[in-house]
Amino acid sequence: MYCKNCGKEVTPGAAVCLSCGVKVGDGTNYCQNCGSQIAPNAAVCVNCGCAVNNVPAGAERKSKLTAGLLGIFLGGLGVHNFYLGYTGKAIAQIVLSLCFGVGAIWGLIEGIMILCGKIDKDANGVPLAQ
Ligand SMILES: [Zn+2]
Ligand SMILES: [Zn+2]
Questions:
Q1: Which of 80, 90, 105, 110 has the smallest count of CB within 10 Å of its CB?
Q2: CA 79, 85, 91 angle in degrees (round to 5)?
Q3: How far is it, in rounded angstroms, from Cα 15 to Cα 82?
Q4: Structural domain boundaries of the chain?
Q5: Distance between Cα 45 and ligand 2 center (Å)
Q6: Separation of 117 CA from ligand 1 center, angstroms?
Q7: Could you tell me the distance, in angstroms and rounded to a whole number, from the CA of residue 60 to the centre of ligand 2?
Q8: Which residues of 91-119 are buried (b: 16+ CB within 10 A; e: fewer)?
Q9: DSSP 7
Q10: If you ran DSSP here, which 8-state letter would residue 128 be given?
Q11: Mean pLDDT: which of 29-33, 83-87, 95-99 is highest?
């Protein structure tokens, strides 16, 4: 396991990188799996093929609990999808609610999926905060 910020090897179980002091798992510069440098917006490491879970620097992580509860209570209005940035899906939910009255069920299911971790990213691919 390697530091994603500086690329140095980190001790398994360590909470912070001893080389740069950054929390293990933070940073977007190096592959956590093999320690090779990765392109800023790469989805996979070109060296080892391992998926790179890039959280853009300064990205706002949306709250999983907020998104889940919004889906359960206001899902028919697509509020949780507006919150997460899935605007197209949110509008579809409003239309379904207004025309067929079924958007709320869809929203409720998505709210539960968010709370269970089945939906764990926002529209920008940023993982939701716990
Ligand atoms: Zn480091
Ligand atoms: Zn790699």
A1: 105
A2: 55
A3: 34
A4: 1-57, 64-116
A5: 5
A6: 29
A7: 25
A8: eebbebbeeeeebbebbbebbeebbeeeb
A9: -
A10: P
A11: 83-87
